[in-house]
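Apologies for my clumsy wording, but could you write out the amino acids of a protein and the tokens describing how it folds?
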Amino acid sequence: MSSKGSQIPLYTKLLQFRHLKQRNAICPSNSSDASSKSGKRSRKQKSSGSGSLSGEKALKAVPNSSNYKFPEGQIKPSTLRATPNKLPFAPTGGVQTVTIPNSTKSRKAFKVKTSDNLLYRVNPVFGFVEPGQNVSIDVLRHNGVEKTDHLIVLTSDTTPEAQCAKAIFETDPARELTVVPLVAH
């Protein structure tokens, strides 16, 4: 009874709801900030009459490479491994899941990035992996051209008392890096 076009926005809304639920659990002190920011944005959108914010510029091109260099010794290969070691996608998009097991004896904080933020969405972006546990990360790919991108998982050792993974990565800790190719063919 429902068409394919109506299923995609519903699924996206479910992912957003799940993300907010996990974000509030990870950073309880920031939960009120997140809800107040989203409320302000929706009021601006309603007042402008269109779906986009007035004065907002559209990104016309995404750079394919970065000239940023990490300081010596700041980034090293991660002791955590992602499974599977690459994610295949159809060019029309889809959802895949990456699992990050923590086989070390220390608690790890993680941050997930992609090489193309317009094409991919990840959930959760920040979080913790307890020793001996694993975490699943959903990767959503929108419709786009056939190309290979990268999912980057930054990890850092953390204390058992830490409650907000986002705050840990704002302090610029020593990081470990895992890269998972995102292959669309």
About this structure: The chain has a mean pLDDT of 74. The chain is about 25% helix and 30% strand. The domain at 4-49+74-184 is CATH 2.60.40.10 (Immunoglobulin-like). The radius of gyration is 18 Å.
